[in-house]
Amino acid sequence: MITQTIDYQDGETLLEGFLAHKDTAIPKPAVIVAHDWSGRREFACKAAERIAAMGYVGFALDMYGKGIFGRDGDIEGNGALMGPLASDRALLRQRINAALQAVRNLPQVDASRIAAMGFCFGGMCVLELARSGADVKGVISIHGIFAKGHVANEKITAKVLCLHGHDDPMVPPDQVLAFEREMTEAKVDWQVHVYGGTMHAFTNPVANNPDFGTVYKEIAANRAYQSIANFLEELF
Q1: Was domain 2-235 assigned CATH 3.40.50.1820?
Q2: Are 55 and 1 in contact (CB under 8 A)?
Q3: For 150-202, how does the pLDDT look when each residue is reduced to its tens digit (9 = 90+)?
């Protein structure tokens, strides 16, 4: 497997993505990986490598800026990093679309076959990518935030898969129902897989804060990655 960092721009903001792929002369489908609120750290990069192991190109994007990272368990600091983008969905859409354009330009990538997946805050990001009308095959939210911002949706062409823990305190059932209505009214090909007895951040092995609602659950993580593999096979 080949891995490298890739610099790209969103306007004047310098960003640094992480590319993972198997050596090949033939361009392959790509999956953009959007990180959680702590930034493009090891967890997102390992997810990109896992995508590459499936035979695709994995690209862990950067929503914050080159060299800007949070820390595990730093609720206040990570929230300060995420907040400006979560509250300004136009800026968030611009930032993730910059990553999409960077991936389209990579020689390893078949630009006609791109999907995106994201964890927690990254789930919000990929759902906003779909809401922006971006030309991607599909998006996958993994314990992501479903709530809309104040920016109107463009026509959603991507297929949508959401992998959600029923006991996630950050995404209560009424938010799930509102999202399902939103997707249905937009005539989107959507799926929501709900895992019982499962909280937020269930795919992250370091998540262990029941009071905050973030707890790793291996069986749910395994089921989620199987669903991801099936969805990507369907898309590509």
Answers
A1: yes
A2: no
A3: 999 999 999 999 999 999 999 999 999 999 999 999 999 999 999 999 999 99
